[in-house]
Amino acid sequence: MISKQMRQEVAGSSAIRAMFLEGKELAKQVGAENVYDFSLGNPMTPVPASYNQAIIEAVQTESSLELHGYMDNAGYPETRQAVADNLNQRFGTDFLYTHIVMTVGAAGALNVVFKTILDPGDEVLALAPYFGEYRGYVANHQGVLREVKPDIPSFQPDLEDLEEKITEKTKALIINNPVNPTGVIYSEETIQKIAGILEKKQQEYHHEIYMVSDEPYRELIYDGNEVPFLTKYYENTFVTYSFSKSLSIPGERIGYIAVCPQMTDCDQAIQGLSVANRILGFVNAPSLMQKALIKSMDARTDVNYYDRNRQLIYGKLTELGFACVKPQGAFYLFLKSPEPEEKNFVEAAKRHHILLVGGSSFSCPGYVRLAYCVSYEMIERSLPAFEKLAEEYQKK
Ligand SMILES: Cc1ncc(COP(=O)(O)O)c(C=O)c1O
């Protein structure tokens, strides 16, 4: 018999994945072209040619041992150096290669960070609405997740609530920017205020309160917006990054942690991350992907593709009278449910073959998330279904 804890996890398993599977079932019944699946954040733009080329070159030029062997738990020094150089060039930071730990995506990075900093019962704050997997990642390391309310309708964090929620036990605050599920970018002003609050609370409680900056959507930004780079505002910061979205390679599982060089006990933190990477069973990040990254650190997927989708779906939904904040980044849109019980709205949408995920999955009931990392054609085909859905609600 599997553990009680895992039975609970299985029972409450991700609504997003469940919806994805439901979509496949529906496609069998009504035909794939008649299902409008906006449930999963699975990037679908082509992988940049330079990244594919770098994989081919690595396979052709490296020896098997170098390419496929074990390495330092933190990753290949050349890859870590390439990440450090890239960040320093873009953000004016001062990372050495030793401040970078290569990881199994952002999911791996977050688990490695929490393994390194949490003692049982330590609290981690997340700004609602947030990526629901954080609950599991924090619980994996006996931490307790606490939520901070959003300021609605801007979906910037409610800073008074943040200040109230920080206690003696608070060890970290996760900041996901741009935000999954709203597409909002937390402004520089917001980040400065958050940093000020954390500094004050660190002094009050005499221990570190870390910022964990989860930023897999850093490069997916629109309208010339900028995402503040958090080590510039707060020293006790871990940046967790994934190439899943910027290179459209989520299955390859590659990311990194960048440790702010000015962090308290920085060397000890780096040692902790390396050991955590090993004992969590990741051992090291995938080696071929690390090799390919050395030569293609600037490769990016086509953000204009997502922007075109964003304009189409946001334009149509607001024209139909649905309320949502205009996404500034990532590829999600957070729609206010036209009825208080979001589950009913998700079901109503499903009757029109539109698959959405309820805001409760992101600790924000009364809303639904729509992932527009889909084909433009699918969005076009879905518009009459959205029209019918809107009509249904206008009649109510
Ligand atoms: C906010 C956020 N953090 C972390 C992750 C995990 O990223 P990865 O699958 O690249 O590890 C995701 C994935 O969708 C995400 O949306």
Main attributes of the structure:
single chain; 396 residues; alpha/beta; Aspartate Aminotransferase, domain 1; Aspartate Aminotransferase, domain 2; 2 domains; seven-stranded mixed sheet; 14 helices; 14 strands; 43% helix; globular; binds pyridoxal-5'-phosphate
Question: Outline of this structure?
Answer:
The chain is of the alpha/beta class and 396 residues long. It has helices at 4-11, 15-30, 49-61, 64-68, 77-91, 105-117, 133-139, 159-165, 188-205, 266-279, 287-294, 303-319, 342-351, 376-395; strands at residues 36-37, 100-103, 123-127, 144-148, 150-151, 156-157, 170-176, 210-214, 237-242, 255-259, 332-336, 354-355, 357-358, 367-371.
Give the C-level CATH assignment of the largest domain: Alpha Beta
Write the CATH homologous superfamily of the largest domain: Type I PLP-dependent aspartate aminotransferase-like (Major domain)
Helix content: 40-55%
CATH fold type of the largest domain: Aspartate Aminotransferase, domain 2
How many domains? The number is: 2
Chemical compounds bound to the protein: pyridoxal-5'-phosphate
**Oligomer status:** single chain
> Which structural class best describes the helix and strand composition?
alpha/beta
- Extended strand count: 14
Number of helices: 14
Sheet with the most strands? 7 strands, mixed
| Radius of gyration using CA atoms only | 21 Å
- SSE string, helix = H, strand = E? HHEHHHEHEHEEEHEHEEEHHHEHEEEH
Average of pLDDT: 96
Shape: globular
Termini separation: 48 Å
> What are the low-pLDDT stretches, counting only 5+ consecutive residues below 50?
none
Q: Which band does the percent of strand residues land in? A: 5-15%
